[in-house]
């Protein structure tokens, strides 16, 4: 024993430390290294579990079932049926330039609206495409990155997405943005969710859709909207910025659009701030037509919205229409002519063949767009039981009026000035083709875009001016030839 003590008490070459001290130091260092490695492994495991806890692939692939809403009847405009980001203040907070836009839209401003398309996010990955109408009217694909556009709404935010697109928000982020989901921040409510206005830590205003978890309905709604518009980018679609998956909570974060929706401008309290001019209405509808043409013809699989209605058409301060609320959307592969599904949508907008058979394809959206166009032209609800019997259904009443050669009497009486006869007939022709009872006779949305765009303000005037100029040039040349011709 004494010999062991002697050996342990011998000094070593390590700073003259005794052997037992050196052994203790080495053991302590090894223990510290082991604890550090163990701590790093535990941390990595926790992050992996949190990252993979709710992957998109685990969300059940089930159909979206939401009740059929009704339009019309007593107090139809008090129903805030999911206006994704409709401001509480409505358009009352518009600046003076927006007020001018309300009553008289200028060509220069409408022509520059393309610059308002979404900027790219520093955190976005995967495919991100945008479709616009080409000069020939065909739909083509292009990158949605906008040079010189506004800054990304994700700048300064810490978390990145794990689904390959958008931004991953924590529950704490969204509680802070919405003041713990204060009732004062509520801007819309629907059957399966409440929409709150929020402000992110970087100052970006957003609309937070908190899905209600009724019998797993939040899972269904989340999957439908993510699959439908998670990757798509178009200036006339309300942009889905990101999401929150935490515990049983499912939330979707959209860009905030605070100039009301088309229903409010046509029928609701927003009318007190002014009346949308004919040009403004056609600009909104043309934008929605382009968005639908993109969803139907420019991406794969195509997206059938299934709930086109005026309350789902949001309007920004440049009076660009933005299509929102994809909770009822269905995806349709290229090899499928239709899918059979439970009938969903809003009464008055649903296509007759879909209502009768449950067979759904993009033609159903086209019918709904036709009803929407008639609603904008007439200022009437698609179904209004407060009117006399033959005027309850907007589509049937308008067909009757056109058949009796009273087309000019269907215009919204609040419009001043009234549209030209040519512009009105063009809009009615497009709408009636869209609501044709035979779905096969309805035009594609790209054709609708061409028909509407050809009647956009001042196009006809420019064509007439060119025609007159060409006629004058022809007369001038003819006169010069007569002068130069020698007498016989």
Mean pLDDT: 75
Please, what is the CATH homologous superfamily? Transferase(Phosphotransferase) domain 1
- Biggest sheet descriptor: 6 strands, mixed
Number of domains: 1
Unreliable spans are 53-150, 480-488
**Anisotropy-based shape:** elongated
Structural class: alpha+beta
Number of strands: 14
Task: Briefly note the CATH topology name.
Answer: Transferase(Phosphotransferase), domain 1
Gap from first CA to last CA:
147 Å
What secondary-structure arrangement, pairings included, does this model have?
Layout: H1 2-8, H2 19-52, H3 96-103, H4 107-111, E1 129-133, E2 139-143, E3 167-168, H5 171-177, E4 186-190, E5 193-199, E6 205-211, H6 217-229, E7 240-246, E8 249-255, H7 262-266, H8 278-297, E9 302-304, E10 313-315, E11 321-323, E12 330-332, E13 339-340, H9 352-357, E14 359-360, H10 362-378, H11 394-403, H12 421-434, H13 445-453, H14 459-484
Parallel strand pairs: 3-7
Antiparallel strand pairs: 1-2, 4-5, 5-6, 6-8, 7-8, 9-12, 10-11, 13-14
Helix pairs in contact: 8-10, 8-13, 10-12
């Amino acid at each position: 024993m004494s010999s062991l003590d002697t050996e342990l008490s011998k000094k070593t070459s390590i700073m003259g430390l005794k052997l037992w001290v050196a052994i203790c130091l080495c053991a302590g260092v090894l223990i510290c290294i082991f604890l550090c490695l163990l701590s790093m492994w535990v941390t990595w495991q926790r992050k992996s579990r949190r990252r993979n806890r709710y992957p998109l692939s685990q969300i059940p692939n089930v159909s979206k079932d939401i009740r059929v809403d009704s339009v019309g009847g007593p107090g139809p405009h008090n129903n805030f049926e999911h206006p994704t980001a409709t401001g509480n203040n409505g358009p009352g907070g518009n600046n003076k330039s927006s007020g001018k836009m309300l009553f008289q839209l200028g060509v220069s401003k409408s022509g520059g609206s393309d610059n308002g398309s979404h900027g790219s996010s520093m955190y976005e990955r995967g495919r991100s495409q945008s479709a616009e109408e080409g000069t020939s009217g065909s739909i083509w694909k292009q990158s949605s990155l906008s040079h010189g556009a506004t800054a990304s709404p994700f700048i300064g935010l810490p978390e990145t997405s794990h689904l390959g697109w958008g931004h991953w928000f924590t529950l704490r982020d969204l509680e802070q943005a919405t003041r713990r989901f204060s009732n004062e921040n509520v801007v819309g409510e629907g059957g399966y969710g409440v929409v709150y206005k929020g402000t992110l830590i970087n100052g970006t205003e957003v609309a937070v859709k908190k899905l209600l978890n009724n019998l797993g309905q939040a899972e269904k709604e989340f999957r439908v909207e993510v699959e439908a518009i998670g990757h798509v980018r178009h200036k006339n679609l309300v942009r889905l910025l990101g999401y929150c998956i935490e515990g049983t909570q499912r939330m979707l974060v959209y860009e905030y659009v605070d100039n009301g929706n088309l229903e409010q401008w046509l029928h609701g309290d927003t009318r007190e701030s002014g009346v949308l001019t004919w040009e403004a209405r056609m600009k909104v509808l043309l934008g929605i037509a382009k968005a639908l043409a993109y969803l139907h013809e420019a991406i794969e699989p195509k997206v059938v919205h299934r709930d086109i209605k005026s309350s789902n058409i949001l309007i920004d301060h440049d009076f660009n229409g933005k299509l929102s609320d994809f909770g009822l959307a269905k995806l349709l592969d290229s090899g499928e002519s239709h899918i059979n599904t439970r009938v969903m949508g809003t009464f008055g907008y649903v296509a007759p063949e879909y209502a009768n058979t449950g067979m759904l394809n993009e033609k159903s959206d086209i019918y709904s767009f036709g009803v929407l166009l008639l609603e904008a032209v007439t200022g009437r609800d698609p179904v209004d039981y407060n009117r006399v019997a033959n005027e309850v259904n907007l589509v049937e009443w308008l067909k009757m009026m056109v058949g009796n050669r009273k087309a000019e009497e269907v215009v919204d009486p609040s419009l001043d000035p009234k549209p030209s006869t040519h512009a009105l007939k063009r809009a009615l022709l497009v709408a009636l083709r869209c609501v044709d009872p035979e779905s096969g006779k309805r035009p594609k949305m790209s054709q609708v875009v061409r028909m509407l765009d050809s009647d956009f303000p001042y196009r006809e005037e420019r064509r007439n001016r060119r025609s007159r100029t060409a006629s004058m040039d022809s007369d001038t040349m003819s006169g010069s030839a007569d002068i130069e011709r020698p007498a016989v």
